[in-house]
Amino acid sequence: MNRRLLLPLVVLIAVVCVVAIVMVSISSTSSSEPTNVSVSEDMIKLSEYFYQNVDRINQDITAEMQDTATKLSSSTPNDPEAQEILRDVFNKYPNSAGIAWVSADENVVNVPIYSLTGVLSSPELQNITEQSFAEHDVILTDPVMSNVYGMVVCFVVPVYAADGSYNGYLCFAHMPISLMNDIPNTPYYNGTNYELWIANSEGTVLCHSDISTIGYNYYTNMLYRGLDKSFSGIRPIIETSEGTTKYEFYELNNVDVVEKTCIWNTLTFGGQDMRLVVTNYPYEAPEVSFPETIDMDEITDVAQVLYLSAKKYGKEATLAAMNDPSGPFSDTGTDIFAISTDGVILSMPSKSKIVGLNRLNYQDVYGMRLVATMINRANQGGGYIHYYSELPYSPDQAIFGLACVIPVDETWFVGSRHSVLTNTAPINAEVRSKLIRAVQPIQEYVDAYGKEQTLSVLNDPFGEFNNADIRFNAISYEGILLADAEHPELIGTEMFSRVSPHGTSITRDLVLIAKQGGGFEYVESRDADENSATISLMYVEPVDDEWFIAGAIELDSHQVPV
Q1: According to the 3-state scheme, what is the secondary structure of 493-509?
Q2: Under 8 Å CB-to-CB from 453, ≥6 apart: which residues?
Q3: 473, 523 Cβ separation under 8 angstroms
Q4: Which residues fall within 8 angstroms of residue 150, CB to CB, at 6 or more apart?
Q5: 263 to each of 41, 118, 205, 278, how far by Cα in Å?
C-alpha cells in the first residue's frame, strides 16, 4: 500500500475507534432504565400512602374549585358576592396563597386582593383559554413565582356562565407543600431520613424538602448536571413511570454527596405526570457548632477585607481566592459570599455546590427572600440583613444570623455572615401565615371604606385591627408615616432618616419591598440600655402606587453581643 495513504488510514481507524468508544459511553450513561434495587417494606407502604394522599388532596381541591366555578356562573368579577364566594374557599386552606377569577373579558377578582401579584401575569396563566381545557377539566401548572410566598403551584378550572358560554378561569394558588401536607412530619417522614419529593415527566421539580430547588429542571439545571452519577441516576425516575433505583446526590445540608435509595410511582393529574418519590439514605447530620462568644465587628471587618481585595486585585482574582479551600479567606471565622446583583452565587465556600446558580427566589424559614433583600441593601450602598437559616434535620430550629453586604460595583457585591446567638433559635411555623392573614383583611377594608377611614381605624389603639400580638403601620412611598397606633406622635413624620441599631433605614427597605409586590423583612429594636434586642417579622403589602400596609409580630429576644 502507498505509504502516503497508510498514515491517514491509521488515523481514520483510530478516529472511528474513539467515536465508537464515545458512543458506547454516551449510550451507557444516557440509559434511563431503573436498576430495580430492593427497598424496605416500610418504603413500599409509604410510597403507596404517598400516592393515595396526593391523589386525595388533588381531588378534594378540584371538587372545591368546580363547585366554586358553578357558584360563580351567575356572577361577574365586579359582584361583591363573587369576592365572598372566593374568600370562603381561601379560608378553608391554610397553605393557599390566594384564589382569583379571571373572566373571559380579563376582569379579575382576587382574594386576598394583592395575593397573586405577578402570578397571573406568568406565561403559565397568561396563555390559558377555553381550548386549554379540551383534554383536562383541571390544569395543574408548573411552579410559578410569587413575591410573597415564593414558588406556588396553581390549580386552574374553567368558569362557565349560566348560558353555558366560557367565562374565564378560576386559579387557586397553593404552596407546593399543600400537595402532601397530610403526611406526618412532611417532608421528613416520622423522624427518619425519608425524603419525599415530586417532579413531573419533563423533569421540573414540583415539590421538594429543599424548597429552594422547587421549579428547577433536572435536565437543564447545573445543580444536577454537575454530578454525572446524580443526573444518570435521576433520569430513570423522570423517564419511567415507576420503579426503584439508587442515585448519588447531596444530603439536605447540601454539603455531602450520599447514595440514596428510592421508590417512585406516577400520578397523572391536571396535565401532569407526577413522579411521587420516596428516598432514604443513611446519614448522621453533623452537630451545629456555635462560638462561645459572638464578635459582631468581625462580620463587618471580613466583608471590608473582601471589598478591598476586589477593588485592589479585581473580580476574577478575588473570587478565585474566596473559592480556594486553602486560600487567604479559608479561615475567616465567618461565612463569606459573593453574589451578582441579578442573584447568581459567585462564591460561597460553605455551600460550594450552589456556585453559579441563581438564588434570587431563595427564601429563609419565615419566607424572607434573603438574596433579593441583600441585593436591595447593596443597591442602597450596603449594610446589614438579619436572617433565619434552616437546619434541614431539625425542622423546628434555625440559625439566627446577621449578614453584612458591601457592593463592589453595580454588578456584584461581597459579604460576610455569622450567627448572632450561641445556640439555635426555635421556629414558630404559624407566625408567617398569621401575619399575612392579619394584614390582608385591611386591604378589603380599604376597598370598602377608603383610605381615610382605614387610617383612622389603624390609628385607633382599640380599633378592630389592632391587637396585642400584631402591630400595624401604614406608610407612603415618600416615607411618611400614615398610621401607627403605638406611636401616634410620629404620624406625619418622614421615616427614611430613622435607622436600625445597625444603621439601616428600615423604611427604605419596606418601600422597596412594597414596590416589588410585597414580602417580608426583619426589624430589630433595642431596649433603653441597648442590652436586649427584639426581632420582629414584618409583612409588607402595597395598597396602590402611593402607600402600603405593614404588620409586625415579635419572634425572639436576645442579649446583644458585646
Answers
A1: CECCCCCCCCCCCHHHH
A2: 445
A3: no
A4: 175, 211, 214, 361, 363, 367, 369
A5: 11, 36, 16, 5
Beta-carbon contacts of 492 under 8 Å, excluding residues fewer than 6 positions away, are 480, 481
The H or E element containing residue 160 is: strand 150-160
C-alpha cell at 515: 414596590
Amino acid at 455: L
In 30-147, alpha helices (H): 41-71, 80-90, 123-126
Q: Provide the residue-wise pLDDT of the chain in tens; the chain has 562 residues.
A: 444 334 333 333 343 344 343 333 333 344 556 668 899 998 999 899 999 999 999 999 999 999 999 999 999 888 889 988 998 999 888 788 889 999 999 899 888 877 787 899 898 899 999 999 999 999 999 999 887 788 899 999 999 999 999 999 999 999 888 887 766 555 555 456 788 899 999 999 999 877 888 999 988 887 776 666 667 888 999 999 999 999 888 887 777 888 999 999 999 999 999 999 999 988 777 777 776 666 778 899 999 999 999 999 999 999 999 999 889 998 888 899 999 999 999 999 988 888 988 888 788 888 888 999 999 999 989 999 999 988 877 778 889 999 999 999 999 999 999 888 878 888 887 888 888 888 888 988 998 899 999 999 999 998 888 877 899 999 999 999 999 999 999 999 999 988 887 778 889 989 988 888 888 999 988 776 667 888 999 999 899 889 999 999 998 877 665 4
- The strand order across the sheet containing 257-269 reads 205-207, 195-200, 272-280, 257-269, 243-250
Task: Name the phi and psi angles at 420, rounded to 5.
Answer: -85, -25
How many residues does this entry show for the chain? 562
Alpha-carbon distance 154 to 453, whole Å?
Answer: 35
Q: Can you give the C-alpha Rg of the chain in angstroms?
A: 26
Strands 195-200, 272-280: pairing is: antiparallel
- Dig out the grid coordinates for 249 from the structure: 446526590
Q: Which residue has the cell 400512602?
A: 49
**17 Cβ contact partners less than 8 Å away, ≥ 6 residues apart:** none
> Where are the alpha helices (H) located in 393-519, listed in sequence order?
431-449, 451-458, 506-515
Nearest to 387 by CA among 376, 371, 409, 375: 371
The CA angle 439-441-446, to the nearest 5 degrees, is 100
Note the pTM of the prediction, 2 decimals. 0.81
CA 452 to chain centre: 35
